[in-house]
Amino acid sequence: MKNSALEWKRLTNLRQIDYNNFVSKFANTTDSYFLEKIDGVLAAFTYFNDFGSFMTINDVKIAGLPVIDEYINILRRGNFRHVVVIGELVAVKNNSILPFGDLLSVIKMSRLESNKPLIYHYVYDIFSIDGKKATSYKESMNFILQNFQGAKRTRIPKYVYGNIEDFSKLYSKSILKTGIEGIVARLNDGRRNYKIKATTSWDVVVLGMGSKSMKAWKKDQAPYLITAFLGPDGTFRRSSDVGTGFTFKDREDFFKYIMKNKVQEIGDEVFVKPAKIIEIRAFRWRQRPSQAYLWTGKEYRMVGNKDSVILDMPSFLRVREDKSVNDYDIRLSQAEVL
User: Fold this and answer.
1) Relative to the CA of 107, which of 55, 60, 134, 212 has its CA 20 to 30 Å away?
2) In CATH, what number does 4-197 get?
3) Adjacent-strand bridge partners of 279
4) Burial zone of 188 (CB within 10 Å; 0-12 exposed, 13-18 middle, 19+ buried)
5) pTM across the whole model
6) How far lies 281's CA from each of 134, 203, 225, 313, in Å?
7) 201-334: CATH homologous superfamily?
8) Is the bond preceding 172 in cis, omega lying within 30 degrees of 0?
């Protein structure tokens, strides 16, 4: 079964750009959609002949929720046979989206009866309707507004349609709200799509940790994490080492994880299979050649230096259990700079 959420991400190709550069570059843009970017778990809802379920970006199927019943009732009334909807799964209490760590726990334990009514779906896009993809984002939004406006658990993110001034007003009102990561811009040419956050963050894969000579090692704590982006040729392009933003427990947990799953040592650094994704914050970045590794399935083989994204003063934010090692989530081209 294909993963519609991942395919949507590849097709949409949201690139990250900071606020000032976006406003400068697209000062004359008009007739575009700007939506709040919800900090949740991306998932596709698939409706087919009166049945429905969610599939997350990590191929986890979720069924038996009140929000699914709501979807089925709405789409049945519209006499649709097969619809795929893209959006973010969240957990809501007191009409507020829970912080990411809390909502992820609720979604992972969605089988608990106490968690089921807390799970909502914020709709971003329509992937297909009765086997046909929408011809434009405007067509998708028209379908969303006609069918889901006023629904209880199927929600539409706050949005505006217009020009760069409309974007700036939405950004200023939304950027510090709980549960909002930033703004998604769907520009009117249908080919350029961006996400604009208050602080720039990146999804990278953990390749290991080092160095054994550092004091933290003697305390069974990871001194820094070796991180990488995935290049278009399938090689892992080393980025900046991440040594700040951790609690003591974070460092202990990463130390245990890496030592338990060690596959090899290169110099005084320890490497693990590329599996764990983390989100890191950085305020500046640049493109520069860096060490590239080919993962053989058992170990890494260095293949020289290749272009990567190097981050200035990177800081750990969180583990992204909702993401995986694929050609989109940790792709090298997460930035508009590339």
Assistant:
1) 134
2) 3.30.470.30
3) 203, 318
4) middle
5) 0.79
6) 34, 9, 14, 8
7) Nucleic acid-binding proteins (2.40.50.140)
8) no
